[in-house]
Amino acid sequence: MPTSNLPTFLPLPEAALRFGMTEAILYERVEAGTISAGILSSGEIVVSKDNIVPKANGANDINDRLRAIRREDFEHLRGEEITVTEAAEKYGTHRDTILEWTK
Known about the structure:
With 103 residues, this protein is an alpha+beta fold. Helix content is 38%, strand content 10%.
């Protein structure tokens, strides 16, 4: 069964990092209908990588991606509790990395 014509979908956090934008901006584009998206049975939002236009001038540079992260993009999480293990699983990051970030 050929699958070469099927679109490739990425989890929203991974797509945001890969294309050098915040999750909030990417989600706004999903809401506006400029990016195809879906919701998995787990509730995770996935977006089509085929219609994401990456940020110009070094979008794949880690420093650009880190500069794109803004505190206000995560205001909705204020007061929400999550364990380090849960966060690692949810965001596809190694547990030790999250522990280092918290230091």
